[in-house]
Structures are given as structure tokens and as C-alpha cells.
Amino acid sequence: MIQEKTNTDSQTATNKNVPVIEIKDLYKSFGKNEVLKGINLSVNKGENLVILGRSGSGKSITIKCLVGLVVADKGEIKVFDTDITKIDTNELNEIRIRIGFLFQNAALYDSMSVRENLGFTLKRHVKGLSPKELELEIREVLENVGLADAIDKMPSELSGGMRKRIGLARTLILKPEIVLYDEPTTGLDTITSREISELLLDIQKKNKTTSIIITHDMACAKHTSDRLMILKDGVIHAEGSYEELEKSDDEWVRSFFS
Predict the structure, then answer these.
(1) Angle at 101 between CA 242 and CA 136, to 5 degrees
(2) Tens of pLDDT along 194-221?
(3) 33: in domain
(4) Does the model's pTM come out above 0.85?
């Protein structure tokens, strides 16, 4: 296993002793298929961690375990200093409200307009908002993702990049402290992928979010990461900055960058 020193920006360095996510010895199997074989990682407050790995390496399973969508077989998963493997459903739901999750397909409700999609999420979790307050929250988050004019559109009227942005808006409307991105640029053209990557950075800076980004897109990884981890055979095989891993002595690690 390669362990390489990480170079981070000043914000991350300031928060280096404030991990908001800590995973220790995480194991998960599906029948005889051992997917995770002892994952260990931590993410600092305000940091963007990118996780790379071949298909089936367990990247998405790792973050699904992190929010309890998949139950781990063994291990410790601390979020905001609470081990989510040892709490009940009500406590888990309180933590989930503080975490945003952007799925690959944006997961919008096709029968609802953009306004309705965002309003449904907000009303479900925030009680007592007046219609005016609800509208202001919706318009603000759409401004943040650059799609204020799409408020009355249906998902079928949106391009792939727009759907990603609306999915992100729905994630951000609850003002999460942690955001988990599962392949945020998959299926998008190069220019739109770059725009989404820029948006992820803007969100980190504006909202001071902590993020884990699962991606195959090396341009996205380079642009958004404070630190990279690469999964191989169910464990973290390499860790470091983009520049460090790109120059790694490990040929398999370098293959991601070629």
C-alpha cells in the first residue's frame, strides 16, 4: 500500500485536525463477493476528497455505507464524531439531514416541475415555512447553480447537464455540511463536465462544505480534489495529491493518469 504525503490548500491545512468523517476497518460483502476488505479513511472539515478505482472496486458502496443506505458487515463509521453503525434510525436520520447525496442520475421526480422537486424536498424536512419563504429558498438555490430560469421546467425539458445542476440544487437546498457526489460528471460532454467541476468548487468555497467525490473523470478529479484515494482489491491502495499520484512509482496507480 502506498502512503504519500498530502499537499492541501490553506483552508484544509487549518482544519487538518478536525475530521468530520472517519472510517475504520470497513468490511462489506454481498454473498461470496467481498467488496470492501478493511477501508480506512478520514475527511477533514472543508476538504474535497476524491475516490478513484476501477468499476466494482467499492467506491459507491463506501459512500452508501457512510449514510446507512448499505449496512456494513463490520467497522466503524464516524460522522460528526458519531458512529452511525451504533445508533437507531431516528438518530441516523438526524445525521442524514446534514449530508447531501448527489446520485449519478440526479434522481429527479419526472412528474414534478423543478420548483416542485425542490419544494417537495424542503417541505419534507423543514416545517413551518411560509409559501414566500419556500419560494425564496428555491430561487436562491437555483441562482447558486445558475438555473434560475428553469424553475418552471419539467425534468424532461432539461439537458443532462441541467438535470445534474437541478439535482445538485435539490441536494443543497437543505444546506448540508457534507456532500457526497457519485459520478457527478458521468454522461456529460467535456465542456459541461468542466462546468459541473467548477460548480463543485464554488459550492465548497461558498458553503464551506466537506465532500467526497466518486469519479472516473480524471479532469474532474484534478480540478476538484484536495486529496485523492485509489481503491484496489477492497482497500485504499494509494493516497496523495493529484500531482503526487500522477508521478507515483506504482505503475498501476499511474495507469489512472495516462
Answers:
(1) 115
(2) 999 999 999 899 889 999 999 999 999 9
(3) yes
(4) yes
